[in-house]
Design goal:
TIM Barrel, 2 domains, 10 helices, alpha/beta
Length: 349
Amino acid sequence: MAKSRRKKRKSHKKSKLFSTKKIALVLLACFSAFAIVYGVNYFQIIQSKNKNEESIEILMNKMKKMLDEEKKRLDSLQKYKKPKESKKLPPITVIKPKEVEKETHFSEIQDYKKSLEKHKTEDKKILHVDKKQTYSGKPKLAIIIDDVAYAHQIRLIKQIPFRVTPSFFPPTKRHPDTINLSKDFRFAMIHLPTEALSFARPEPETLKVGDSTEKMRKRIKQIKQWFPSIIYYNNHTGSKFTSDYQSMDKLMGIMKDENLYFVDSRTTAQTKAPKIAKKYGVKLYSRDIFIDNDIEKRLIRKQLKKAMKIAKKRGYAVAIGHPHENTLKVLIGAKEMLKDVKLVYLKDL
């Protein structure tokens, strides 16, 4: 009886011990399986992350390579571009423009009349062409508008339905914007202030008889820097200056050195420009007629007809007007009247 009880206890103990081990093994197996699964997942995550980082790095390298190639391409193109020259323009004092008063003086016309009074000599070249000359094609007429300085003048000049040549003053306090205004035109001239026999309102830095060669050269170089694309200059007033041989010799010598051309406004019958031009072997164009000796519209049209008559006799003519309202309005409506001549820029004569 006692033996059978001891056997039962032993068998019970054996059965209980086996059961605990079994549970432990199951738990160990589960933990191992979890560890394996977690490890595999972790490895896949790390591997995926590395691949992403590698992809980003590859993409960045490609972008860097593209940028480097584009930079090389732009650098190679830049070699063929003409480098821009940074020119330091001479300073000018710019003031705030006031309301511009209407001009009442006739500048060159007034100067010319004064020169005739002084010399008592009529200028036959200006008044007419004696003999008809042979030429081919349609006669040409170049109309120069002197004294151009203000925006309101530009607005009217631009309404003229044929080619005219504006001649701009160098900039001053009174008219500081002539550099920019000149850029609105395909072809323009410089209206160079020179000394008159008698004129009440000379421009600043007017060239005078007795000025040294260096002073004249400095002035011409200054204007050339302001207007680098303009090569034709005509005199503003200048009855005293252009009639002085030494002064004109200095000026035209400088202009030849600078590859510039002088156009004679002929404000005096005593002008030395033709002699000096012959000396230097340069082409000289001279005014044939003023179109606004009087600013009455009827008389302006009469002068234009005279200009056409000169052009038909010789093959070309040079007329000078001024930016008075009547002068410009007559020109705006003169296309039909001038149909028998070819209206050209001065450079195209």
